[in-house]
Every structure is written in C-alpha cells, then in structure tokens.
Please model this.
Amino acid sequence: MDSDDEEEARRLLLEQVRQSGLRLDREGRWWHQGELVEHAGLKGALNRWLDQLEDGRFVVRLDAERYAFVEVEDAPFQVLTVELWRGPAEPAAHVELHLSDGSEEELAYDSLRVGAGHALYCRVKGRFTARFSRQAYYLLGELLEEAPTGIALRAAGQLWPIGLAS
Model:
C-alpha cells in the first residue's frame, strides 16, 4: 500500500468514526441513535458546539480537529423566545432573539421567511438559519401586519416584508 492509499484509508476511517448517530429534529430536540437526549447539560453543550463545515455538513465541534457529524432535520438553531424592547426616545420595537445555544442577538429583520407549514425562519449568527418556536412566533405576532405584498413585520422603525423560504 503506498502513502496515498494509506492516507485515504486513514481519512475514510476518520469519517466513519465521526458518524456519531446524533440528530437534531425540526423542534430542536437532540437524538442519539434513536434515543431522545434528555440531560439538560448535554443538550446545552450540543447546541453550543453546533457548527457547519465548508461543504455544508453540520457537526458538533470541540476544536478544529475534533468534531462529529450531525444530521440536522430542518434548521440548526431554534428561536426559543423573543423579547421586544424600545429605546428611551424610540417608539418602534426592536426584536431580540433568544436562541437554542443560549445566545441572544437582534433579529436580522430582512431575513424573515415563511416556510412549509407556516414555519417562520430567520438568519442568525450571520450565516445560519433558525426556526422560530411556536412561543417565539406568537410573541412576534403583535408586530405583524398586512402589507401590499403580504405579511410584514413592523419593527426597528420600518415595515419588513416576510418572504417565502426557498
């Protein structure tokens, strides 16, 4: 076996080892080999470690070299809830997202999309998709209104049209 064959064999073995049996379902629940992950600390860690490789595959990543593949059924992140806030001299509401990995960020208003089954999605962390939980969707409802092009969100001083997910 030459060095190229040995390198390819090592790469294939590593790929096999990285098949973790982890799955993230559309409701943001973690599964391992068909069993629901119920330990709160482990679920939190898996959410924090979630990342995406350049080729589009999702992983849980400990560092650059140590990661395992994850099957993601829908969006990699969930918007668990939203918080509406207004500045002291600002009547328009801003929307803060509380995400499944424990982080918080302001909604990327121009990224709102509706998908199959009327699920609501947005962009988070500049590059990932997040699906709104039912609770977050309902809380956002007070800012939704009809617009000439369909439904839109009135926030941050503007009316933001909600597009269709591709």
Notes: The first strand starts at residue 19 and ends at 24.
